[in-house]
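fyi for ur records
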Amino acid sequence: MHLVLVDSFSGWFELDLLPDMRSVTVIAKLKRHFAVYGIPQMLMTDYAQQFVYSEFTDFACAWDFKHIRSSPHYPQSNGLAERVVRSAKHLLEKGHREHSDIQAALLHLHNIPHAGLPSPAQLLLSRNTRTFLPELKDRMTPSVCRGIKAVLTRRSKESKAYYDRNAHTLPPLQQGQIIRMQTALGFDKLAVVQGPASRPNSYVVTSQGRQYTRNRRLLLHVQKPAPAEGAEDDYRPLPIAIPTHIIRTISLRRDTIKHNRTRYNQ
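which gave:
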């Protein structure tokens, strides 16, 4: 188990091996990083249990930073973290496969320019750090990188515009509306909207006495009266539409079913 901590401005990330996933263990690791780099104004995490417990809430209050949790079951809401997690997994897999030093690989990764920008070390520390490779002395001299925030803002707007070309804005939900919440089986859980959540584009909903926080894209508005408490029929999954020609072949031989499905897919 590992903890990945990334700086949203520079892309510099830290990778820590965790003996367990308790809140106190994660907090101890974060305190060590905050002592080195300073306390962030905002910390965004996923919805893992160690970030939900009261110990972490007390830690955020005592160390004076805003804690935001991404929407459960919707990793796109914290895209930077997901990209860095993929990089960290690749780093760990390569280190395990080649029996190489993970920390040495991380050291070199911090000094590699990416996507036309200076290296994470240059952005965070205003200079490259010393590695095993030869380095020019002027690269070790501190020099503040200017205009980076404007570049990042422009790229963010371009990415959003590209995404919005095929994306559809979903209408907002109102308190008391009936929705179906997406689970691993589809939109199969009826729930009632209680109101907007603290995180962007998310809502607090209740279903069968339990409260959930979900991204808007995981909630489907339905025209149906509010279910009575404990009415199990209201919580059954939506029926699945199956093409009629497939239904007719259910009683036939397996090879016939396979032939018809292939023809349908074509």
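The radius of gyration is 24 Å. thats all i got for now
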